[in-house]
Amino acid sequence: MLLGKKKKNIVGLDIGSSAVKLVELKVGRGGRASLVHAGVAPLSPEAIVEGTIMDSSLVVEVAGRLIRERGVKNPNFGVSLAGMNVAIRKIHLPTMSEAELAESIPWEAEQYLPFPVSDANLDYVVLETGPETMTVLAVAAKKDRVADYTSVVSQLGKTPVLVDLDVFAIQNAYEYNYGAPEDRVVALANVGAYLTNINILAHGQSVFWRDIIWGGNNFTEAIQRELHVTREQAEAIKVGERVGDVSPQTVFGIINAVAQDFAEELKRTFDFFYTTSAHDRVEEIVLSGGSAHLLNLDQVLKDRFSVPVEIMNPFKEIAYSETEFPPEWLNRHAPALAVAVGMALRTVGD
Length: 350
Hints:
The protein folds into 2 domains: 11-85 and 141-221 and 249-344, 2-Layer Sandwich (Nucleotidyltransferase, domain 5); 86-140, Dna Ligase, domain 1, CATH 3.30.1490. Helix content is 36%, strand content 29%. It has 10 helices and 15 strands. It has helices at residues 56-70, 98-110, 143-155, 166-178, 216-227, 231-238, 248-275, 297-305, 327-333, 338-344; strands at 11-15, 19-27, 33-42, 48-49, 52-53, 76-81, 86-94, 120-129, 133-142, 159-165, 185-191, 196-202, 205-212, 284-288, 309-311. Strand 11 (185-191) and strand 12 form a beta hairpin. Helix 1 packs across helix 3, helix 5 crosses helix 6 (231-238) and helix 7 packs across helix 8 (297-305).
């Protein structure tokens, strides 16, 4: 507890498969946040493979350069995890005291996790308590994966004070900027290079979480395969740059086909959600992540699900200087910075 002390801000460091993203906010009186630092630095694809840091020295080098270029002095950093090395489970238990719960939760969680509790860092929060039963949200992350990511922060000469999950960081950024959706079911889809994080909110609460192995890399690989170009050329084509004599119509056709596949993957996830909850319809989709801006992706999802599809602006309610952060730059990178914003909205000891 930081009694009598001003809460300390956290620098959100989102170490993704294709880029390192950084955001620092200052939260003033009344809870209004303003942007202090923001940056994006590309990572070569061999640095992180399928969510595993393969070359930590390269990640440290890229993140360190970004920190120096942005002049970040704050020592308190947060990182975020996703994928097969984290697990979120809602567990129903007989009602018990806090002390009893603390003692029994590792044994109870063991039955629901895809890896041994002894290999994981485990945290939990009580969602509901009734006279006979209680609902607990258990969150686990593999210790070696946590160590990999916090080690990067330590090697940067900073202090790792927060380990978050992408799905919760995205929710934090969304709710700060748009409010909790009390009247509808909203699916947050954070489309990264390797993974898409899904967090479904219903009537002000997060009710479903899933990471699916699908992202911007699928589009890049399809362009490489169809057009016989290098990965670098495919990445450029994907974001609308002209390469050689490749026609925009050809690119549109490839991206559209992959977007249709993504829509099917999303439908399977929604169908699973419907079978495990009292809800039978997602009423809005909000995209974030580095691949959210991909050509026509939002329109394909609108057509497929017949619901509004919005690209999240995680700076919608955050004040910033247009001199320091040109709107064109911020708008281009905003969806990719959503996880970092979600972490930066937290404080040390939060």
